[in-house]
Amino acid sequence: MKNFISLLGLFLLLLVSSQNLKAQKSYGDLYKPQADASADIDQLLSQAKTEGKHVLVQVGGNWCVWCYRFHDFVKNDEELQALVDQEYLVYHLNYSRENKNEALLAKYSFPQRFGFPVFLVLDADGNLLHTQDSALLESGDGYDSKKVTQVFKAWAASALDPATYTE
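User: That's the sequence. What structure does it adopt?
Assistant: Structure tokens below.
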């Protein structure tokens, strides 16, 4: 029985690893451990200011199967992808052994406490508006489109624009 459980565990580990490798082959590495994340985010903030958008930071790593699942989930849902394209600029902030980006994560109130992926919404001035635990966006064995849409709409630049609420 012990051997069966060990073999089952090994099979599941290989299955999860192969899922992650498939996603990486599709998109390459989403996360860049060698990147100057602070400079990259500053550049996106400047662009966000020009375009009237927020910056959506997905914190995770190339080791994280759920990070790739979320990326796939959004890319394969036309409505969600359109919402992201309209309201956000997206950055994949690396967290790995090679580079934990500890200074940035401290600046953003240690979002890694929620696990990975975790999402940060920054306004165009770089202020942290919201930290989203991705586990709260799940349903069953994947992400829930209604929950993700609700969060993306609630923290969009247009939702926080006072002109949206004038009569």
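Residues 28-165 form a domain with the Glutaredoxin fold (CATH 3.40.30.10).
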